[in-house]
Design a protein that fits this description.
The structure holds two protein chains of two kinds.
Chain A (H helix, E strand, L loop, with lengths): L16 H32 L4 H13 L2 H12 L3 H25 L3 H9 L4 H32 L12 H9 L3 H29 L11
Helix pairs in contact in A: 1-4, 1-6, 2-4, 3-4, 4-6, 5-6, 6-8, 7-8
Chain B lengths: L2 H10 L10 H33 L3 H13 L2 H12 L4 H25 L3 H9 L4 H34 L9 H9 L3 H29 L2 H6 L1
Helix pairs in contact in B: 1-9, 2-5, 2-7, 3-5, 4-5, 5-7, 6-7, 7-9, 8-9
Classes of the chains: A mainly alpha, B mainly alpha.
Chain lengths: ~220, ~220
């Protein structure tokens, strides 16, 4: 007789533990990545044209205040009960954290440095990639960490509308069957995942910007 | 059918116009639960942050607490408490709501007080103000924009999470979403979602109006 592991799911859970983990990673990291790709140009534009920033900030704040459950249910009509229904709101929410992060990051670039880069004959693209982005990287990465961690915990609410919440599924099934073991497993899995992902992003940031002051990396 | 048609259908249904499942009844429940949770969180978070921010200690623990608060899945906490202490227990929803609202209040208030210009505080001390006078007449008014933004974040989060409390047989606007999903009545789900959005955007507007009234004009120009 083989011993039952904590990670063996009872028959009423529709995924294996690894399946839930994969679902969780795919959607929450995918959404953060898409949010980052979108917020880089938005943030850059807001840092350049100052008048643009207040309305953009107001817009993302309003989006962030929309409860996730409401956004999920609105999207059911368009994207059905699929991962996309969870993915789009998470990506939108990450903008609220990432756009201010990118703007603050770009603003930490000293004007002299920008002028020096121009004087050295850097074009706008090369100046952005080789000068501005590396200087802004610690601030942006701090925002990425916050966004990634909150999208991991936010995603679990997707379980309310269907089996789309990654580890959140353990919460809804645990409630249905009054299974405390499942609930604890879900809670600890999510917290551990958030902790691990925060740590990995910290390491990534240190590798990307080895010159950065360690204190500035904290946020 | 578009979302607007569903919302229209929701408001046309007599079931949701009056009685225990009526819109006003649910809105009142939602506001009442949210208000209690928000006030509890403010009563815990504000004094604590005033203390730590004033004496300038506890940056590390407060940042760690805020990080844990962000990582904590609200649904998990609500469901766990419901199974532990009973589904119809008011505290099963109240405790997670308070637990989620305290970290943002604590963090922003603490950071706001820490960011107050030291020379202003020194000047106040030089004028012979006592520590409590410095706190409430210099530090808190200067930090008010940040303090209010922390309270706003917490309030919006509480309103949003009260919706999820419907999962454990709790009233409020989340009822429509959860019941609609299990009764396969999509218009009920969308109608509930619409009301929740109105309520949380309303909370946001309330707090920005509040900060316009409360924050000193001198600070607003600078910020």
């Amino acid at each position: 007789m083989s011993a039952m592991s904590v990670f063996d799911m009872p028959s009423y859970v529709q995924h294996s533990y690894l399946g839930l983990l994969w679902e969780q990673l795919k959607v929450s990291f995918g959404a953060t990545a898409v949010g980052l790709v979108a917020s880089l140009p938005i943030g850059q534009a807001c840092a350049r044209w100052r008048l643009l920033y207040p309305p953009v900030l107001a817009l993302v704040t309003v989006i962030y205040s929309i409860p996730s459950l409401a956004l999920f249910v609105f999207l059911i009509d368009y994207t059905g009960l699929t991962d996309t229904t969870i993915f789009i709101p998470l990506a939108l929410y990450s903008l609220c954290i990432l756009v201010p992060g990118v703007v603050d990051g770009i603003r930490t670039v000293p004007p002299d440095v920008r002028i020096a880069a121009d004087a050295m004959g850097f074009g706008p693209v090369r100046r952005y990639v080789q000068v501005e982005l590396p200087i802004a990287a610690p601030t942006i990465m701090a925002a990425v960490r916050v966004a990634a961690v909150s999208s991991i915990s936010l995603m679990s609410i997707g379980a309310v509308i269907g089996n789309l919440g990654g580890f959140g599924e353990l919460f809804t099934t645990g409630l249905k069957f009054f299974d405390l073991k499942l609930l604890w497993l879900g809670l600890f899995s999510l917290l551990a995942l958030a902790l691990v992902c925060d740590g990995l992003l910290r390491v990534a940031q240190r590798l990307l910007t080895p010159w950065a002051d360690r204190r500035s990396a904290r946020a | 059918m578009s979302l607007i048609d569903f919302i229209r259908q929701f408001f046309a249904d007599p079931r949701f116009q009056s009685g225990y499942d009526g819109v006003w009844q649910r809105i009142a429940e939602h506001c009442w639960y949210s208000l209690i949770a928000f006030l509890c969180a403010a009563a815990i978070g504000l004094p604590l942050a005033f203390l730590t921010g004033h004496i300038g200690r506890g940056d590390g623990p407060i940042a760690a607490l805020a990080a844990i608060g962000r990582a904590m899945p609200s649904l998990g906490l609500i469901v766990l408490l419901a199974v532990k202490i009973g589904v119809f227990n008011f505290y099963a929803a109240l405790i997670p709501l308070v637990a989620l609202a305290v970290p943002p209040i604590l963090l922003t208030t603490h950071e706001g007080l820490r960011a107050v210009d030291r020379s202003v505080v020194d000047a106040a001390r030089g004028m012979g103000m006592r520590p409590l006078q410095i706190l409430f007449r210099v530090e808190v008014p200067s930090a008010l924009p940040l303090i209010l933004s922390g309270l706003r974040t917490a309030a919006v989060q509480v309103v949003a999470t009260t919706t999820i409390a419907a999962v454990i047989s709790f009233g409020g606007l989340g009822r429509y979403v959860v019941d609609g999903l299990s009764q396969y009545q999509y218009y009920q789900v969308v109608g509930g979602g619409f009301l929740v959005v109105m309520l949380s955007v309303g909370t946001l507007i309330l707090f920005s109006a509040l900060s316009r009234v409360l924050v000193s004009p001198g600070l607003r120009r600078r910020g």
